[in-house]
Amino acid sequence: MSQPESKKFCEPIYQRDHQTLSNNSLLIQCADLVLPWLNPKELAATSSTCKSLRQISKSITLRRSSDSCRAFESFPIPFHNSFPRRQSWGSSSAEDDKWVGRRFAIETVRLVDESGERVSGCGCQKCGEEEEEGDGFGNRRCPCLRFDGFEDVVSECGPSCCCGFECPNRVTQRGVSVRLKIVKDERKGWGLYADQLIPEGQFICEYAGELLTTKEARRRQQMYDELALGGHFSPALLVVREHLPSGNSCLRFNIDATVIGNVARFINHSCDGGNLTTTLVRSSGSLIPRLCLYASEDIKKDEELTFSYGGIRLHSKGLQCFCGSSCCFGSLPSEQT
């Protein structure tokens, strides 16, 4: 009589153990999909549950800190401190961490000429720097190298041009071509630093982010101002104005890199203008230019990259500036969006 009772008593325990093992096995199988969504504290807590999850968590942390760009750029851009906030990345999935095949951006808005025909770009097989009348060998200057009517605007070949991705007139479209790193400062917070000697005139990166309407930019700026009062929030909303050829109006666009952006959002402000200069770059046939940053001087390795966010300061109690320059105003630029 005692033997059947012992067997009956043990069955539920075995079933529970088996169910626990099955659940753990399922969790480990899905860990590479679930764990990348965890923030550092949650990832640390998960890593203490079992050896398998500890190894997976360790590899995710290593991948996160070794390249903030997830292999989207030519060079990895590592964090030299802990990495920021929750982001769904760090898995070993090839689709997640690698950009398979470089391709041009799809333009949804195009420019047209006086006759209403779409401006489709150049027909060059190899864009060069020859004179307009040619170089004597049948080669002509690429028409994308000039953009009539717009001052201080760099012009590049666009998605409708016949030239390939290695065209010398697509410098900014190939992404970051210098080694950079992200370092956290006690007062400034995150900052972008040179990890090599960068010569004057070198393209650094595009200021990428969400393109907002003016109404949405004003709504977000008001929200960001309230969040920034606590001192633990750094918005990255820039208002850019481009004067049109008529001289009577300007094109305004708002780039918000606070949530969606690239490494440019880590570049801090400097009241003396910094060592970077901003330039508008237009691709042939594209209506909206892109804001790109270039080295305004030779930049040494381990030197911080900075530029001026603007000169307007409307709020006397705005965010404090820690640029440390001799002409520091004490507060960051702000603008009534």
From TrEMBL:
It is found in: Chromosome. It comes from the Eukaryota. Residues 178-310 form the SET domain. Pfam families: SET (PF00856). SMART domains: SET (SM00317). Residues 317-333 form the Post-SET domain. The keyword Metal-binding applies. Keywords: Chromosome, Metal-binding, Methyltransferase, S-adenosyl-L-methionine, Transferase, Zinc. This is Histone-lysine N-methyltransferase SUVR3 isoform X2. It comes from Ziziphus jujuba. The lineage of its organism: Eukaryota, Viridiplantae, Streptophyta, Embryophyta, Tracheophyta. The gene is LOC107411298.
